[in-house]
Design brief:
This protein is mainly α. The protein has helices at about 15-40, 50-70, 80-104.
């Protein structure tokens, strides 16, 4: 009989909240890069959807911080991955705040 662990994409030692935090942070980073590149390419004349992408990316990174903190207190997984998920999302929140302040 084949073990289910053999075909697992993620080891069981990683907290699920930390994985969700990484996914939210990665999507947030993609939205940030997409919006900034489009804004630079069009010299600031972008559609409203790119503003919505920036706001949704900021909300996803804030949610990523919440999931990262809950994953931090989970017993499963190493501490380095948990701390990196939180740090990544905090840096993204700071970047979104800088772009928000600069845009006002």
């Amino acid at each position: 009989m084949i073990s289910r662990r053999r075909f697992s994409a993620v080891s069981e030692r990683t907290a699920t909240d930390t994985i969700i935090s990484y996914i939210l942070g990665s999507l947030s980073l993609v939205f940030l890069i997409l919006s900034v590149v489009k804004s630079i390419a069009s010299k600031g004349n972008v559609a409203a959807i790119y503003g919505v992408l920036m706001l949704s990316g900021a909300l996803m990174s804030i949610t990523g911080i919440v999931f990262g903190v809950t994953g931090y207190y989970n017993d499963r997984g190493g501490m380095y991955g948990k701390k990196m998920a939180i740090r990544m999302n905090v840096v993204l929140v700071i970047l979104f705040a800088i772009f928000l302040i600069k845009g006002l």
